[in-house]
Design goal:
It is built from 8 helices and 6 strands. By secondary structure, the chain is an alpha+beta fold.
Length: 187
């Protein structure tokens, strides 16, 4: 039986294929480059970045200590930091910057001292493994730290909420994460 010159099954199959194609494009189109949408550009003057974060009403500054050969850094950038909901949440509340732990680029630390990315990571911030997500308050003091990748976007957003809501003052992130996991299971 032909309908408008075509077979009904063929029309349905073509429409279904088109629908699947559009869905796959929309799913893949949701990922955004973390260097454009998560991290802010910096000239390396982190004392100035603190001032800018204060003026913008941010809660803290997040430094992502990374290195090129780190598979966990790449995993975080490819599965978590590229997600719009993560990018939007972090951009709203924080100034976020990437620092190469092997970098020889000269920077200015939060206290106005000249150093290099690698010296700042290794000597001042004791980064021994990557990735390290280090939050600093708006005076440049460390307030919360996470070493290694998170299990996914939800846990990474919890880490941000942990800082925004001030829970870092009362408990370690591991306890806060456990409470959030229990809440998620209970709902």
């Amino acid at each position: 039986m032909r309908v408008n010159g075509s077979l009904p099954g063929r029309r349905f199959g073509t429409g279904l294929c088109l629908l699947i194609l559009l869905w796959s494009l929309s799913v893949h189109g949701m990922e955004r480059d973390p260097y454009e949408h998560f991290f802010q550009f910096t000239f390396g003057d982190f004392q100035e970045e603190l001032d800018t974060a204060r003026e913008a009403g941010k809660k803290a500054v997040l430094i992502f200590f990374e290195m090129d050969e780190c598979p966990f850094c790449h995993r975080m950038k490819d599965t978590v930091l590229n997600q719009p909901e993560v990018q939007d949440f972090y951009r709203e509340h924080f100034a976020a910057f990437a620092v190469d732990v092997e970098g020889a680029i000269e920077i200015t630390d939060f206290q106005g001292n000249p150093t290099t990315q690698s010296e700042w990571a290794f000597q001042e911030n004791r980064v021994r493994a990557t990735p390290v997500f280090q939050f600093f308050d708006l005076d440049g003091r460390p307030i919360a730290r996470l070493t290694g990748p998170t299990s996914g976007t939800e846990e990474f957003i919890w880490f941000g909420e942990y800082v925004v809501e001030g829970h870092y003052r009362e408990q370690p992130f591991s306890r806060y994460r456990r409470e959030r996991q229990e809440q998620a299971r209970g709902s």
